[in-house]
Amino acid sequence: xxxxxxxxxFFPTPAQENLLRRTMxxxxxxxxxxxxxxxxxxxxRQERVQYxxxxxxxxxxxxxxxxxxxxxxxxVPLQQCLRHLQKAFANFWGxxxxxxxxxxxxxxxxxxxxxxxxxxxxxxxxxxKCKKPLPIVWSRLLPDGFCPSTVxxxxxxxxxxxxxxxxxxxxxxxxxxxxxxxxxDAGVTxxxxxxxxxxxxxxxxxxRLYKKLKVAQKELSRKTKGSSNRNKARLKVAxxxxxxxxxxxxxxxxxxxxxxxxNSLIAIEDLAVRNMMKNRKLSRSIGDAAWGELFRxxxxxxxxxxxxxxKIDRFFPSSKRHFECGFVMDKLPLxxxxxxxxxxGVKNIERDINAGKNILAAGLAVNVCxxxxxxDRHSSKGQLxxxxxxxxxxxxx
Length: 397
Fold this sequence. Notes:
alpha+beta; 2 domains; 5-stranded antiparallel sheet; 5-stranded mixed sheet; 17% strand; globular
């Protein structure tokens, strides 16, 4: 049994939309005020304010005349946003994320409801203070006997409303074993190249709508701030971004599901995608490829369906090492896609396919030996890395 979120689109009535927008506005206000209080407490008194203190502050805010409107919405989303802020700070202090940022109205918003703030019965969902059930478009029904533990309502910048139902899903079963194993090399021209010699082209969803987006953003920049025309132009830009995101997400889900179903072991590189995005020449292409989302989906789907996902050291020279003889090139610039091995004489080695084979071989070795992997911030000792004459191994080109 795994926790799984079922996401649906819904079209609220005017009364429901008014209540949900007020709820999200209150959530945003409470989150920003709590973040401001925690920031000031640290910089002025070097005190770490925790969730308990912010919860007490929320109670005090509700009693003031200026913020008495906080009592008009459900208290559960307000408490949940404080818990989310606590988690954001925990990730920051654990060096897993940047410092929490203030929420902006233009980014839409979300509100999380726990069991005490909603009712689900016979395929209908009522939220707290809503008289009618949400008019949800049930693209797929929840399995019989399922009752959501958490409901999250989200408003996208494009104006679309979505609701996510978190359930304990017992329908997710371990897939039957298969003898296939694959190593995956992520790229820009080809999204992935596998050790089987297969290449999946990068759809480049962003480039497909880039010209249309450029025109829309240019129109937005000419509008007066705060005007109705600027809001219309902003929605136009947001809708184009939504199309790009939906197409990219749909493609990645289909690709990762096919990989997980077909292979019992999947080997990938532990790429530092965030650091690679700092490269101004490649950041747009890397962002459009969405390697981080690709690896995230592979990770949780392998866990769901009983597959093995192995991450190898990011400094392992998968592209520069010849798979057959083991020779490692000193330099291999990105513009060289095929190369010749000076040791064994093999000609026209395809860079990406060769890298996929090396990644699979390294992944099998890591799986057998039980070597540590870089995501846990372990040292590189024991990793599959090759050094020459005591010099530090250079990152893969």
